[in-house]
Amino acid sequence: GPTCTHVSTFIRSLYRRTSARGGPGRFAGCRRERSILRVIHAYMHRASAVARLLSFGLRAHRQSIVTTTMPSSPPWAAARAMSSAPWTARSPFAASGSLSSRRISSVDGRCPELRPARRANRTWRPSPNRRLATAPRDYFGRDDTRIGSVVGYCARDGRPVLAVVTAPALRRRIPVLTHDGAVDAVELKSVEFAAPRGMGSAIDDDPGVDPIPQSAEPAPGGASDASRRLAAVHAYATRLTHEDEGSSATDEDESPLAERAWRRALAAGCVPDEHPSSTAVSSAAAPMDVASLAAHVFHGDEEPALCESSVSAATEANVGVDLVRCYAAHVLVSGEPGRFRRHGKGRFSARTAHEVESFAADAASQAAADSEREAAWARVGEAINAPPGSKPPPSHFLDGTVTQLRVEALEAYALGDGNRTSAQRAAAIDFLSRFGAKIGERSAMDTLVALGRWRGYEELSFARRDVPTAFPSDALAHAAAIEAEAPPDLDCQIRKDLTRLRCYAIDGEGTVEVDDAVSAEALPGGKIRVWVHVADATRWVGLGTPLEAEAESRGASGYHPRGVLPMFPLPVAARLMSLTPGEPKCAVSVTAVIDERGATEEYWVGTSTIRVTRAATEGEVIKMLAEEPGRHEGLELLVEAARRRRELRLKRGAVDVRMPEATARVFDVGEGEGFV
Cα–Cα distances in Å, from 186 out to 163, 165, 176, 439, 633? Predict the structure, then answer.
């Protein structure tokens, strides 16, 4: 009425004056006007705030407002009347439209008459996070789980738990008393079943059944009465589920209870298939709450015996029959994911017949995969428990299946940090946990030894540095082709024949491939010509071949206590390329002339053909020189040339450091029995 007219006129005059001076709150000379404007700016979205302003006598800058209220009524009666009226009737700014936020329409720029000049081009948009903040939750909230409400959830081991709420929720966790008398705190998101009316009834208000008390704590002598009542309800639901799982009849009348409930739910919520030959329904069913689900499970006309048993269980537990039926239906349907799809807030929907068949096919496929996986784990366990002489070969588990991935993950875990990924670490820990082994790199090594994959002593340094221990198949095929048919010698026209020289191959004990030899001959004037011969690998391996690529990646042959990692496959390195004694072999020779002072006068490098006279170790050479003086002229000349070079180097300031030489060798005692 007139009150709203006066207030509206006053506010419009304030905004006109302030907009010309730079906006609200920026005019000078009247502190009271600025305070009034702040109050109106903050509370204009409430119609009751306008009425509250009417009870004050305000004087603003030579302009007074006369407040009038309804006769024979207190000042706050107008506020209550306007608060109960519709927004369009009680708001003095109804012409500006509905507000999408708590900002007033004049500041929002939606009313042309009250729009400030400074904010004329500014557009307000709703916050993008407002939809997320106001989106409905798809799980039970505090209103669904008040004190005395019966809730159901799954424990960490997957078993269902029935409990009653004993205190308000704190940080989205509600204190509960479980059916077995334990005190627990469950998150709201974990609650799958809720009966707000407690133990009375989840659907109807049953005055004949006492509700749960506000504080349900266990009695000093044992479980509380609430726990015993919940335990009876939980036992009935569990027994009903077990009886349904034991039913395997194929007749529709004698089919399991879950299947019968599914057919009834599907028939009630779906449209029959368009094809007349199909007896099942095909369209999707809408989600149903637990009460509707219980009506399909405990159908009065089709399940009379089941309804009577539920009434007996409710009477025995002293709870409402609706609680027994709702919880039993929830537990029964939760164990049938192939027929019912789970939704939020304890709702379920019946799957279509096609979805049920597809789910069954996927379950069968998953069961077959699980069976195959368990069989693979069984084979691994048999290999671990096998005696030392019956271990499978190291390549037994490299079959391209998931077992190979597990073994490779265990190997990567045993090599240490930097050689494994997070996924391999997790797979290795799962591998060790399955067989009860300790979690650690040493335990992984012991498991690989017990598996037959590794030996008692394993060269882990090669694996940590990605040193290849086997040749690829194409390199082995190329080596076999070379061994079967020798390629032509491209240097046969320039290769020098040095078979006249007495060559000595001096290597360590156990050397398989002889790759170098030395010889010497006397020259006039006390000079000595020294020869060094190296096996010519280019005679057998051409550029761009698989063997050449593999040799380039390796660089050289590697020796370790157990043997050698050759640069070329042993059939080529030990037979074709090796400087075998007594046979003419292709080599690359280097010669130099040493004078009496030890200086070098001339040298030559080129391809040659040599014949090794004798292969010996360093110890055997020393023994030959001591016991047979004068018989090995070439060795004596080499010793003299070495003496001259050493004296010359010492005169030039070289330092001679002599260090003891250590050699380690490993002798296998037996396959799988360890090492010495």
Answer: 10, 10, 7, 32, 94
Q: Mention every residue, 6+ apart, whose C-beta is less than 8 A from residue 432.
A: 410, 438, 439, 443, 444, 447
Give the β-pairing of 503-506 and 527-535: unpaired
Q: Tell me which H or E stretch contains 403.
A: helix 402-415
Judge whether residue 208 has pLDDT over 50: no
Burial of 570 (0-12, 13-18, 19+ CB in 10 A): middle
Cα–Cα dist 92/5, whole Å: 8
The DSSP letter of residue 490 is T
The three-state DSSP-derived secondary structure of 580-649 is: CCCCEEEEEEEEEEECCCCCEEEEEEEEEEEEEEEEECHHHHHHHHHHCCCCCHHHHHHHHHHHHHHHHH
Closest Cα partner for 191 from 235, 236, 141, 229? Answer: 141
Report pTM: 0.49
SS3 192: strand
What does the pLDDT look like over 416-462, one tens digit per residue? 887 889 999 999 999 999 999 999 998 998 999 888 888 776 667 77
Q: Which residue in the block uniquely carries the two structure tokens 């599914």? A: 262
Tokens 């306007």 belong to residue = 82
Q: How far apart are CA 60 and CA 40, in angstroms?
A: 14
- Which residue carries 């010309």 as its tokens? 20
SS3 assignment for 33-77 = HHHHHHHHHHHCCCHHHHHHHCCCCCEECCEECCCCCCCCCCCCH
Beta pairing class for 340-342 and 348-350: antiparallel
**Quick check: helix, strand or coil at residue 31?**
helix
**Per residue in 93-141, pLDDT tens?**
333 333 333 343 334 444 444 444 554 455 556 555 555 545 556 778 7
Would you give the distance in Å from CA 54 to the centre of its chain? 65
* Cα separation, 451 vs 593, whole angstroms: 59
Residue among 290, 177, 197, 183 at smallest CA distance from 237: 290
CA-based radius of gyration for the chain? 47
Distances (CA, A) of 7 to 11, 15, 33, 48, 391: 6, 12, 14, 13, 98
Q: DSSP letter string over 333-402?
A: HHT-TTTEEE-STT-EEEPPHHHHHHHHHHHHHHHHHHHHHHHHHHHHHHHHHS-GGGPPPTTTT-SSSH
Measured between alpha carbons, how far is 310 from 304 in angstroms, rounded to an integer?
10
| pLDDT for 273 | 42
Asked if residue 124 lies in contact with residue 109, where contact means CB atoms within 8 angstroms, the answer is yes
Which residues does 331 contact at the CB level (< 8 Å), separation at least 6?
A: 152, 160, 237, 238, 240, 241
Number of H helices, E strands in the chain: 22, 19
Which uninterrupted H or E stretch holds 226? Answer: helix 225-246
Tokens for 194?
């809720």
DSSP-derived letter for residue 137 is P
Instruction: Say if residues 216 and 167 touch (Cβ distance below 8 Å).
Output: no
**483 with 571: CB under 8 angstroms?**
yes
State yes or no: pLDDT of 79 exceeds 60. no
Count of residues for the chain? Answer: 676
Residue 329 near residue 340 (C-beta atoms within 8 A): no
Q: Distances from the Cα of 460 to the Cαs of 431, 521, 642, in angstroms?
A: 20, 46, 39
- Residue 588 region, left (φ>0) first, then alpha (ψ -120 to 50), else beta? beta
DSSP 532: E
Two structure tokens written together for 576: 């074709």
